[in-house]
TrEMBL record:
It comes from the Bacteria. Pfam families: CoA_transf_3. Coiled coil: none annotated. This is Putative L-carnitine dehydrogenase.
């Protein structure tokens, strides 16, 4: 079995909260050594985004919550006060032999600390310096801060999410999880890996990679945004309706709900047979998918009545036999109990000082030759400060003095 894909790559991670840390975690999973820089005393802002927190063995309050845990495994935590001269020296010393420098401070903030791209490039010309911000390094909004929900609103995602107009509760709606942060984390990883390939394989040098949440959410709207660019009309909110085949949406059964997507005319005919209404497949209003889109409300109402006649398990079994895509509407308890999810190992167990068996979500990538088999718990605040500074040549007396001064 070969070493992990990014073995030998060293990353200095000054990102906080979610998008940047998620990317750094992805790269750490793939074998990179990731040194996470945190503020002495308080750490990453995400450490305050609780509850829930892990239970401290001594019953003390702590800063190891689910928000921080989800994005910081396989890293080393080093506390450094970058506002201090000594702290800035530590960061530049670490940056000298790093392949990647990641940060998500507001545009221009790190320049006053001597940690901007030009300053880091001066000590490491081949560095890949990646900035993750809300609005990017250029443009009129560049100085602004922002969080996931702001970008869901400004980027158009909320405008196409939620109940249809005229229905109870209609209006723009935020997607539940911080999906723009997650997608930005993926784009950040792609950008860093591409820059590394250009440097190490194509003979290029270091460079500044600019990734932002606003660009990401707009690009992620894909065919929805393309509809507007083609005809000048914004797509309406469709609730749980699908985006292609019809009928598609959530249907209530006698004991719960299921999601159905009828992708073509043959699937429609088979679904009608399963539901005990084969005549619908020959009804002129529903024969072709385009007909069903035009008469969407009518066919959805008909299907709604038919699904109410039996249970979720019954319909899922029959539809699966008929080769029609469908699935239950699961909560997380059902997700992690699902036999397929368990067979794929999506829940992994790691040792943690507070939990002998802490559950984490495994990396979604699987490799035949370089599988990700080791997961290390997200670090306690400053857990690796002593070791990392020792490697830089700081002795115990010096490190103790820096701690006393609040530098680390």
């Amino acid at each position: 079995m070969s070493a992990l894909p990014l073995s030998g790559i060293k990353i200095l991670d000054l990102t906080r909260v979610l998008a940047g840390p998620l990317s750094a975690q992805m790269l750490a999973d793939l074998g990179a050594e990731v040194i996470k820089i945190e503020r002495p005393g308080t750490g990453d802002d995400a450490r305050a985004f609780g509850p829930p927190y892990l239970r401290d063995p001594d019953g003390k309050a702590n800063n190891n919550n689910s928000f921080y845990i989800c994005a910081n495994r396989n890293k080393k935590s080093v506390t450094v006060n970058i506002a201090s001269r000594e702290g800035q020296e530590i960061i530049r010393a670490l940056a000298k032999d790093c392949d990647v420098f990641m940060e998500n401070y507001k545009v221009g903030d790190l320049k006053r600390y001597g940690l901007d791209y030009d300053a880091i490039r001066a000590v490491n010309p081949d560095v890949i310096y990646c900035s993750v911000t809300g609005f990017g390094q250029t443009g009129p909004y560049a100085p602004r801060a922002g969080y996931d929900a702001i970008f869901q609103a400004m980027g158009g995602l909320m405008s196409v999410t939620g109940h249809m107009d005229g229905e109870p509760g209609a209006g723009p709606m935020k997607v539940g999880p911080s999906i723009v942060d997650y997608m930005t984390g993926m784009n950040t990883s792609i950008g860093i890996l591409s820059a590394l390939y250009h440097r190490d394989v194509n003979g290029g040098g270091g460079q500044h990679v600019d990734v932002c949440l606003f660009d990401t959410v707009i690009a992620s709207l894909s065919h929805y945004a393309q509809i507007f660019l083609v005809n000048g009309k914004s797509p309406p909110r469709r609730g749980t309706w699908g985006n292609g085949g019809m009928p598609a949406g959530v249907f209530r059964c006698t004991d719960g709900e299921l999601m159905l997507v009828v992708g073509n005319d043959a699937q429609f005919a088979r679904t009608c047979a399963v539901l005990g209404a084969p005549e619908l497949a020959t009804n002129p209003k529903f024969v072709k998918n385009n007909d069903r889109v035009v008469n969407g409300k009518e066919i959805m109402a008909v299907f709604a009545g038919l699904f109410l006649k039996n249970s979720v398990a019954h319909w899922l079994d029959e539809l699966e036999k008929a080769g029609v895509p469908c699935g239950p509407v699961n909560d997380f308890a059902h997700v992690f109990a699902d036999p397929h999810v368990r067979s794929r190992g999506m829940e992994v167990k790691v040792e943690h000082p507070f939990e002998p068996q802490l559950s984490l979500i495994r990396n979604a990538l699987s490799f035949s030759g370089t599988p990700i088999t080791e997961y290390r718990a997200p670090p306690l605040l400053g857990e690796h400060t002593q070791d990392v500074l020792s490697q830089l040549g700081y002795d115990e007396v010096k490190i103790a003095a820096l701690k006393q001064q609040g530098v680390v």
